[in-house]
Amino acid sequence: MKTHDVQSISIAKPRAEVFAYIANPANLPAWTNAFKSADAERAELVTPNGAVPIRLETRASAEQGTIDWIMTFPDGSVGAAYSRVTEDAGDSSIYSFVLMAPPVPLEALEGALESQKETLATELVSLRKRLEA
To answer: Which residue has the higher pLDDT, 119 or 83?
Structure first.
């Protein structure tokens, strides 16, 4: 059973600008469907059962272009998402995102990841539109 999905999108903006926007957790609610609110330490995650408060750790390295999020849920389970901004030709960037399966019971894993893959594809388009506007 697959436990991850990798997606990427080209963004017609310089790497530093794309990185700065994505690395700021306060911007997560603007381009994702998953976050109702977010800051440097916590977030409110939107789930099918309503909003859930979580601890959010953003690990960002401008030098490496990496932005990773570690999410700790009220029950102590931990989820993660890993991403990277890479320079492309000219003043463009490539944003790649490794979507990890959510910390859910095994019987729900495949459906949850499939649903999140579709959502991520939409979110990446939203991110590009927002940054290129």
So the answer is: 83
